[in-house]
Specification:
Elements lengths: L1 E5 L5 E4 L4 E4 L4 E5 L2 E4 L26 E4 H5 L3 E2 L4 H22 L4 H17 L5 E4 L10 E4 L9 E5 L3 E5 L1
Antiparallel strand pairs: 1-2, 1-11, 3-4, 4-10, 5-6, 7-8, 8-9, 9-10
Helix pairs in contact: 2-3
Length: 171
């Protein structure tokens, strides 16, 4: 199993247990999410009501909650951005990531810059379609994960990760 961590915050933000596709010249990972039901589990060990209880007044409360599987699994935190704030953030982040690549993988810089530029243009052109998330540490200088509904009929959004801002570990 592969787990992906943000290179700057070290937050765990993704795993290969989700369907992942690559876009924008191998720079962006797109991941489909699902809505799942969390909570309200009831366990029956096969002995029925033999140990007492189970009456209506002792029933377990139904605390079922519908959540997004990626947001829940990686404890992503939504962050509000207006277009101006995001522009300032993404410029700084791209420069920081470019410097990181120049030190760790110089052959990747040109491909990254071309794909990242196309990706940012897409985001800015469709800004109101996106929501923004950060990892559990809430480090807003690290990678920001975007979500959007690929099709109106989708129940859950697709998430976009800048691939070069992730560190992959195999377990």
């Amino acid at each position: 199993m592969k787990v992906y961590f943000d290179v700057f915050s070290n937050d765990e933000v993704l795993s290969d247990s989700y369907p992942i596709s690559v876009e924008h010249e191998d720079v962006v990972l797109e991941v489909a999410s699902r809505v799942i039901v969390k909570g309200a589990e009831q366990f029956d060990i096969g002995r029925g009501n033999e140990f007492g209880g189970g009456a209506e007044e002792e029933a377990v409360e139904d605390n079922a909650e519908r959540v997004n599987d990626i947001i829940s699994a990686f404890n992503l935190q939504e962050v509000p951005f207006n277009k101006k704030e995001y522009t300032v953030y993404i410029r700084g982040y791209m420069q920081r990531l470019k410097k990181h690549l120049e030190e760790s993988n110089p052959d990747r810089v040109a491909t990254f810059m071309a794909g990242a530029s196309a990706f940012v243009k897409r985001v800015m052109a469709n800004f109101n379609e996106f929501k923004f998330y950060v990892g559990s540490s809430y480090d807003q200088t690290a990678g920001v994960i975007l979500s959007y509904f690929k099709e109106e009929s989708n129940e859950a959004p697709h998430f976009l990760y800048i691939r070069d801002g992730l560190r992959e570990e195999k377990f």
